[in-house]
Batch of 2 targets.
Target 1
Amino acid sequence: MRSLILSAIQGLSSATLGTFQVATDLPYEQDGNPLYFKNFKRIYVDAAQYDQSPDFDTLKGDGWVNETITVRAYFVTDAKQLPSNYTSLVETIKELRLSSTITGVIQKLCSVTTEFQGDAMITEFEFSFKKYLN
């Protein structure tokens, strides 16, 4: 799922991205700081996280499992001077949850949060996809 989100972000036009770049690296920490915090206006996509919970169990051991796949993307900007395309870029990335390349799921969600550290603003996208397995 990470590769689908990463490809969708990389497929955005240069006009949409503006001065933002898309990193292919995972947002690991370097010197105690996340890599996305060191490289402002660079979009990082994290590895997918999987969570399963039983939805319907039977005595025979078969049933349905509800699986949630979560992928997070991050970027940091200067909070004092937001890029002119910030709002439109956030909206565009948020809508990537509806990409036609993401199939086999019953629910596609994306939440966006912001956090401030000093004069830096961290924007985090949390894409969640649900599907049923048996």
Target 2
Amino acid sequence: MKIILVFFISLAFCSDDEKYTLIFGDFDVGEKMIYKYSLETSFTVPGIGLIKYMEEYIETLEFLGVEEDFWKFKATLTEMKSDNYVNGIEIMNYYRDAMENNPCYLYVKNHGFDDDVDHIEPIKEEDAYLQEAFEGAYMNILRKPFRYPFGSKAVDVAVGDKWIYDEFSSKIYVNIGSPPSLLTSGERIFTLKRVKEKGGRKIAIIELQEDEKIEMPLTVDFLGERRLMVGHVTGNLDMTYRWDIDSGEMLRVYAIANLAGDFEMDGKIFYMKIFMRNISKKVQ
């Protein structure tokens, strides 16, 4: 990946008026990005109890080149672990063994500013049943922008600067096995909090505050039965990024979402809070 350009308007190292462009460079065919993920989601359903999903895995993305209007990546999950419970009863993750070391293709638009994963295809025809599982793993609330991780306005920004990403909508998966949710955001505010030197490299700390609205269907496996609840939630997503300015790489992302809203299940309406914590870290 080509190193991003860093623009200086001061001779002082990491001074407050130094300018930075926080955008990924171009991909080289065969280039790999490897990250470790930790995902947690919890909520309490009346009549069922506390539901808690916890997943860990290592994700490897290999750039295969350009196909029509898309960047094409081969994506593989390894070292997968799950710890899922409903009211203290363990839920088995039936997709885990089938997904581990079983790659799929990710397609990302290579033009414009909408650079999240557009669609996913299993590599083998016999893995078609894993379509939703792949989407749940690679298209969750911790979205993966491939060119503009901090929006298209993260150009020539200094410490203390704030910039707003315009309203957008996207399809996400809250957990593997649930139908897709529709996420809309009225405002995403990025802030370049500080730039520090570590090991001779400049590391930027960027924060994001995002107001969210989600049309959210959720499935829960309880006592051998799959239950579907559908709701509309609102809340906040707070994310902290560690970005290597010199190499143009994401080092770590820490995300917390607190959501709440009304759901309907089996003809009954109830209010529910949802907590989500997602962490990703570059594997050295």
